[in-house]
Amino acid sequence: MADNAIIYDNRVLTKVVLGMEPKRNFFKDTFFSKEIQSSTDTIQLDIDAVGNGVAPFVSPMSEGSIMSKQGYNSNILKTAYLAPYINITPQDFMYRTAGQNPFNNTTPEMEVITRHLVNLKRAVENTEELMCAQAVINGKFIYDYKVGETVKQQEIDFGRKAEHTIALTSTNQWGNTGSDVLKNIRQWRSLILKNGYNAQADVLVLGSKAAALFFKDEGVKELYSSSKYGITKMEVSSDMPGLYRYGYIPGIGEVYEYERYYDKDGKSVNMIDDNAFVYGASNAGNFMGYGAIQNFDANAGNGLLPTKMYASFENKDSKNKKVMVESSPLPCFSNPNCIVAGKITED
């Protein structure tokens, strides 16, 4: 999908902003890797209902056996809207910014605008990742938005079956005597196959406490200690801080531990609780939808619908500029039952 910029010099700033090292988002990249752009502020979400029917046997002399039609449920969802901005003044261009090369011949104004645009772009990407995390973990997400000075709340519920939200109790809680981690995971795999139209779970994501208890399980220890299972090496992601890959387990899939923090009311909050897990299918037709950016300059004459727009607007008195990024994202589940999620211990 295309990003767009209307600033300073369109070609130069587009290169500068989009040429920065991209910040990858694990939940978005894993479960909503496909992007679909709408020309309006809504996304049409078709939830498959293909069923798991089998053809009945008939006599070769019969006319056949009728089967019920399989189809889909169609929903129109309104995308969220993000438009964070920063005001800058001529004074911001007078001094060298943190980390700026004093011998760089780039203009101070370009340096400042680019730095703020990159930070705003990352803030938008952080929000996208938070939306995806909540959708995956809860089967829905809720967000607040402002209309003037009024704060309103919007809930997007994808209709995931209640049994796909797990809360282990008693001896089933990981770490307790009698718990069986691998048995739990295989039961969840079967649940996804049954309710998710044969979706194949292939990604297990664990919070930090859940990961520690996962590796304390005797069955898991045996898997990782024996070379016959062919589990690949463990590694830390270099381009996604807080992501730890623990290899591929045959019959289960890729195993990850994930920590990703965001600021909420002045505090750092983890996107996935330390005792939480997510297990699901990464290739189930889900996608990241983007509604139209409601700005006359969003197209900028290139015929492309951007997923993000970068802009700077100068006030009439030339005393300050508004540096802004706009986007209208919405994670969409075409198959909401391709995932189970929950907690392996009590809070």
Give a quick rundown of the structure:
The protein is an alpha+beta fold. The protein has helices at residues 10-18, 26-31, 108-138, 181-195, 208-216, 218-225; strands at 2-6, 34-37, 42-49, 71-78, 85-88, 140-147, 150-157, 165-167, 203-206, 235-236, 243-249, 253-258, 261-264, 267-270, 276-280, 287-290, 306-314, 321-327, 329-332, 339-343.
Features:
putative capsid protein of prophage fold; capsid protein of prophage fold; 347 residues; seven-stranded mixed beta sheet; 20 strands; alpha+beta; 2 domains; globular; single chain; 6 helices; four-stranded mixed beta sheet
**H/E topology pattern:** EHHEEEEHEEEHEHHEEEEEEEEEEE
Estimated structural class = alpha+beta
CATH evolutionary superfamily of the largest domain: putative capsid protein of prophage domain like
Helix content: 10-25%
Number of extended strands: 20
Q: Report the total helices.
A: 6
Low-confidence stretches: 5-12, 64-69
CATH class of the largest domain: Alpha Beta
Mean pLDDT: 81
Give the overall shape: globular
When the domains are counted, the total is 2
**In which order are the strands of the major sheet placed?**
8-20-15-9-12-11-10
CATH architecture of the largest domain: Super Roll
Strand portion, in percent?
Answer: 25-35%
Largest sheet: 7 strands, mixed
User: C-alpha Rg, in Å?
Assistant: 24 Å
CATH topology of the largest domain: putative capsid protein of prophage fold
Cα end-to-end separation:
40 Å
